[in-house]
């Protein structure tokens, strides 16, 4: 019978919501590089070469190790690839590389049993390891369900016994896109289904006295991924388990999108002390993944549970407000002011132009407003900001009619024509101000201000917007506590999240300054937005160009599903199973569809996760054979075995038939 712990869940998924405290997991031996316990967060990636090409795989592995990979995963789709892992390992050792190898297994238990005798770790996907995935809706009686578990146990137990004999570790890696029909029928396409998919196999391992396990809960949707890992941790704790966590967002994509999407998912969990190893899945060469993962992990090396370094006990610090669940998305209730901010409105974006030359309207191009001298008018883009902060500078040109300008209170009060202009106050200035705007008053505030006598005197009205700032090292938790305190007090003032990053902060790692801005801000702001906290964002980095700040801001909102401003590509990172050049194909599809704002397109190199991950996409492009592509509408196959040279045209035809095609401008 299935263990269902839903009724006893308390939101106890991390040690503390207010201070950084790493969740201590069981130590697992993986070659010479152990994971979990007090060990650092480990970095890993996956090869994209043909596993039967020994030299190519070895040389790519070496490049990955040199880039910072501590574990290297290699696909083994059949016995012959599993057997060749021995040759790959032998060649690596001859060249002086001792990196632990991980065999990636999906549909082939016999390949897993071969690989487990060779490599340091095997990864199995419980959704398709001795289980069925045909997208059938089935009904099970409890007895029938147990019979299926017994059948899976008989297929799985031999692998566990081999791992015990050879000292091989195992990752039980659930993918949102490849839950079995059995799990889908019983639990649905949910984080709970993901957790139970893994827990079934974990319970089998425990019954066989095998504990060298690492667990993952991956999804291409950061919201689902975060919720599933949290639910996994609480479920494990309820059953006396504390296995290490492998963090990753599947099919994150490439470039800025891939980095931001990965940071929203991975960073949110790292902020709460969860995670023992990271794989950033980019549609790029695998050696580019490790530096990104390293940049995410490095921020937590020096963080302590408290100033004294003592452990933070859950019972003392873990306080969730009424109505908030870490396992499902629900936007914080806020007042909707003048049908512009808060309530059901999309989160607003602010950018600082106070240090720019405000004599030329072209300065607004980076903020999404392109000025045509010929027409003497502005053209808005899909990523046009809602506010510009000008401090005490008055522009010498006319602003766009729908762009709101923010001035410091002392300057705003002297402006004669206040149309589309609004004051930004310090908290003290707002308390003392003798003039207020009748439309919007933005007030800078911190979590510490909530405890002051001035805050108790604050008059809450329907023009007030908080601009939430923090100077704390663990700034996300500081700002989250502010939101929780507002909820407990019943205050529904809209809140804009503001985070600032200096050049020194962004230059603290090998990644570029722009990449670090994407990673840090997507972690800090995304961790709030993914839980429905925030009515706007204001990203500050004085040394960064406006276009980068704006693009990153909208990228964070897109990744958290808070505000959609562009096409989303759910693109797998490629591996030895991939049936076409994924990077080239992704760029080709992007070049012809990037104008389809709000559309989600899945680009999958093979069938392993394709249809399932594309449940979160509107359309799918999946490699199903050499030179052959299958096209999907959601999970529905529309056209099979389309020649590669015609596949994109036929995909566009499907989009056009559905009425979703727009001719590019």
Descriptive account of the structure:
This protein is an alpha/beta fold. It folds into 3 domains: 9-310, Alpha-Beta Barrel (TIM Barrel), CATH 3.20.20; 348-559, TIM Barrel (Alpha-Beta Barrel); 568-657, 2-Layer Sandwich (Sulfite Reductase Hemoprotein, domain 1). The strands form 4 sheets. It has an 8-stranded parallel sheet with strand order 6-5-4-3-2-1-8-7. Helix 12 (427-432) links the parallel strand 14 and strand 15. The longest helix has 25 residues, at 142-166. The protein is globular and about 80 Å long.
Layout: helices, strands, pairs:
Layout: E1 42-46, H1 54-67, E2 71-75, H2 79-94, E3 101-105, H3 109-115, E4 121-124, H4 142-166, E5 169-175, H5 181-187, H6 191-207, E6 213-218, H7 222-238, E7 246-247, H8 255-271, E8 277-278, H9 289-298, H10 314-317, E9 348-352, E10 369-372, E11 377-380, E12 387-391, E13 404-408, H11 409-412, E14 421-425, H12 427-432, E15 441-446, H13 453-457, E16 464-469, H14 475-489, E17 495-500, H15 503-506, H16 513-529, E18 536-540, H17 546-559, E19 568-571, H18 582-593, E20 600-604, H19 610-613, E21 619-625, E22 628-633, E23 636-643, H20 644-657
Parallel strand pairs: 1-2, 1-8, 2-3, 3-4, 4-5, 5-6, 7-8, 9-12, 9-18, 12-13, 13-14, 14-15, 15-16, 16-17, 17-18, 19-20, 20-21
Antiparallel strand pairs: 10-11, 21-22, 22-23
Helix pairs in contact: 1-2, 2-3, 4-6, 5-6, 6-7, 7-8, 8-16, 8-17, 14-16, 16-17
């Amino acid at each position: 019978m299935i263990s269902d712990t839903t009724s006893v869940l308390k939101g106890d998924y991390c040690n503390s919501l207010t201070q950084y405290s790493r969740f201590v997991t069981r130590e697992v031996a993986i070659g010479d590089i152990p994971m979990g316990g007090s060990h650092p967060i480990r970095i890993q990636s996956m090869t994209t070469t043909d596993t039967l090409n020994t030299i190519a795989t070895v040389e790519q592995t070496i490049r990955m190790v040199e880039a910072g990979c501590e574990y290297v995963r290699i696909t083994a789709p059949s016995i012959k690839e599993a057997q060749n892992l021995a040759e790959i390992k032998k060649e690596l050792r001859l060249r002086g590389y001792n990196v632990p190898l991980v065999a990636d297994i999906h549909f082939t238990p016999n390949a897993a049993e071969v690989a487990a005798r060779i490599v340091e770790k095997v990864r199995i996907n419980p959704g398709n390891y001795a289980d069925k995935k045909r997208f059938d809706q089935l009904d099970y009686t409890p007895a029938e369900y147990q019979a299926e578990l017994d059948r899976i146990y008989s297929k799985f137990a031999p692998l566990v016994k081999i791992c015990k004999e050879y000292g091989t570790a195992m990752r039980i890696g659930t993918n949102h896109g490849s839950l079995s029909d059995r799990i889908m029928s019983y639990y649905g396409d949910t984080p709970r289904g993901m957790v139970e998919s893994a827990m079934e196999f974990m319970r089998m391992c425990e019954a066989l006295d095998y504990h060298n396990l690492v667990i993952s809960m991956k999804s291409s949707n950061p919201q689902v991924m975060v919720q599933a890992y949290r639910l996994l941790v609480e479920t494990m704790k309820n059953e006396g388990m504390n296995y290490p966590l492998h963090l990753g967002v599947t099919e994150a994509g490439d470039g800025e999108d891939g980095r931001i999407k990965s940071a929203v998912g991975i960073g949110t969990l790292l902020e709460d002390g969860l995670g023992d190893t990271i794989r950033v899945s980019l549609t790029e060469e695998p050696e580019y993944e490790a530096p990104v993962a390293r940049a995410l992990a490095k921020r937590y090396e020096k963080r302590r549970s408290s100033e004294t370094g003592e452990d933070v006990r859950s019972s003392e610090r873990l306080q969730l407000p009424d109505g908030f669940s870490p396992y499902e998305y629900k936007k914080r209730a806020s007042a909707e002011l003048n049908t512009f901010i808060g309530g059901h409105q999309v989160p607003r974006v602010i950018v600082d132009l106070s240090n720019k030359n405000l004599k030329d309207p072209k300065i607004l191009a980076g903020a999404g407003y392109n000025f045509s001298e010929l027409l003497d008018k502005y053209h808005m883009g899909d990523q046009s900001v809602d506010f510009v902060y000008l401090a005490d500078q008055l522009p010498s040109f006319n602003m766009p009619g729908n762009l709101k300008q923010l001035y410091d209170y002392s300057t705003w009060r002297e402006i004669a024509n206040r149309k589309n202009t609004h004051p930004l106050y310090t908290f003290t200035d707002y308390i003392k101000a003798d003039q207020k705007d009748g439309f919007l008053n933005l007030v800078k505030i911190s979590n510490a201000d909530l405890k002051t006598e001035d805050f108790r005197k604050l008059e809450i009205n329907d023009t007030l917007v908080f601009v939430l700032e923090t100077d704390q090292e663990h700034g996300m938790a500081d700002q989250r506590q502010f939101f929780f305190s507002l909820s407990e007090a019943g205050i529904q003032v809209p809140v804009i999240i503001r985070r600032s990053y200096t050049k020194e902060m962004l230059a603290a790692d090998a990644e570029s300054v722009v990449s670090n801005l994407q990673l840090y801000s997507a972690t800090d702001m995304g961790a709030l937005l993914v839980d429905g906290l925030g009515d706007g964002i204001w990203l500050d980095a004085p040394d960064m160009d406006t276009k980068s700040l704006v693009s990153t801001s909208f990228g964070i909102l897109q990744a958290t599903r808070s505000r959609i401003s562009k096409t989303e590509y759910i693109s797998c990172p490629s591996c030895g199973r991939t049936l076409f050049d994924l990077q080239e194909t992704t760029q080709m599809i992007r070049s012809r569809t990037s104008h389809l704002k709000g559309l989600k397109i899945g680009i999958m190199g093979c069938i392993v996760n394709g249809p399932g991950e594309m449940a979160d996409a509107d359309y799918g492009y999946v490699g199903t054979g050499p030179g052959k592509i299958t096209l999907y509408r959601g999970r529905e196959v529309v056209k099979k075995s389309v020649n590669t040279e015609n596949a994109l045209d036929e995909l566009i035809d499907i989009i056009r038939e559905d009425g979703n095609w727009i001719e590019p401008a």
